[in-house]
Specification:
By secondary structure, the protein is mainly α. Helices cover 82% and strands 0% of the residues. This is DUF2177 family protein.
Length: 137
């Protein structure tokens, strides 16, 4: 598949990721992180780092989950690879934090890792469907 195709798919996937993640952060788990991590949270967000992370992370979902699924025409593969990408990336982040930051709660490790699985599987599936639509399939 062409670079132009993936550039379009990437641009279409960005809002999908943000809608799903912001629903979690702003509605479902609005108080969860503050309640468990208030002792570590900064009042100032480094927006350059945050936006850079999201843009790179979305590219990872496309590369590791969506592209292989499109090549095999398999929504199931998009879901599986998205879930696995979410699991491995989130659990790495969570366990690193637990190992290096004071009082990083096990509850956050478990909930946030589960969220990473759901988020990445959902975004991968949505992006896969957008890719099929772009291909006219």
């Amino acid at each position: 598949m062409q670079i132009l195709f993936f550039a379009k798919l990437y641009l279409l996937t960005i809002p999908v990721f943000f809608v799903v993640d912001l629903l979690w952060l702003g509605v479902v788990a609005k108080h969860f992180y503050r309640d468990h991590l208030a002792h570590l949270l900064s009042p100032d967000v480094n927006w350059t780092a945050a936006v850079s992370f999201y843009l790179i992370y979305i590219a990872g979902i496309l590369y590791f989950a969506v592209a292989p699924a499109l090549a095999r025409e398999s929504l199931g593969l998009a879901l599986l690879n998205g879930a696995l990408f979410g699991f491995f990336t989130y659990i790495t982040y969570e366990l690193t934090n637990m190992a290096t930051l004071p009082k990083w709660p096990l509850k956050v490790v478990l909930v946030d890792t589960l969220w990473g699985v759901v988020l990445c599987a959902s975004v991968a599936a949505g992006s896969y469907l957008l890719g099929r639509w772009l291909l006219g399939a």
